[in-house]
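tool_call: predict_structure(chain=1)
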Amino acid sequence: MNKIVYVEDEPEVGSLIAAYLGRHDIDVIVETRGDRAEAVIAEQQPDLVMLDIMLPGKDGMTICRDLRANWQGPIVLLTSLDSDMNHILALEMGAQDYILKTTPPAVLLARLRLHLRQSQQGQPEETPSAPAANRMLRFGSLTIDALNRQVTLFEEQIALSTADFDLLWVLASHAGQTLNRDALLKTLRGVSYDGLDRSIDVAISRLRKKLHDSATEPFRIKTIRNKGYLFAPQAWDTRGL
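tool_result:
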């Protein structure tokens, strides 16, 4: 049985969701205060953490950010706040998913099971994915070391978040190929592109800045109009911007 810590300040909501997930072999520990969440997570060592955003003591976004610094399990935001900016912020903070409380319980269960399964397997289920035997990629002055999760460009170590490293790895593993948002979202988060999600675009913009690519005329991670993004394998011999 999988274990989840669910931080939710409305006892009735917490109890209903815990009861539903419990009927499907997921044990749920409900904590009602944000400022107690990290202590409960450290004690319980759950397989997944689910957070409301509006919480007493400490909000869910801040918990997500602070937790991600020392805990590698999946984090899901379950909230009534239907906001694109909050959705993007949650992903930037390190959350795997942002789910509305209006989502049908069966869909919530399916998405939680997906994140649990991916966490247990240690990699996304969907393709494209990097060849398992190839743990280091080199393109001119760029080195991507998957084993140590390090990126070096012109001997400068580039600091990337876990999510940004994973995105770069997928793009570089398919250098010269155009990958659309749907393929990238399925690989990295196990969800399909809904036509509105801009998280991939935001992450690409961050990568370009850190990898000294051009924001207006990118030549390292290119935008292929109406198709997706392409990692250019021959673009890493010059220093760029």
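agent: The radius of gyration is 19 Å. Proceeding to next step.
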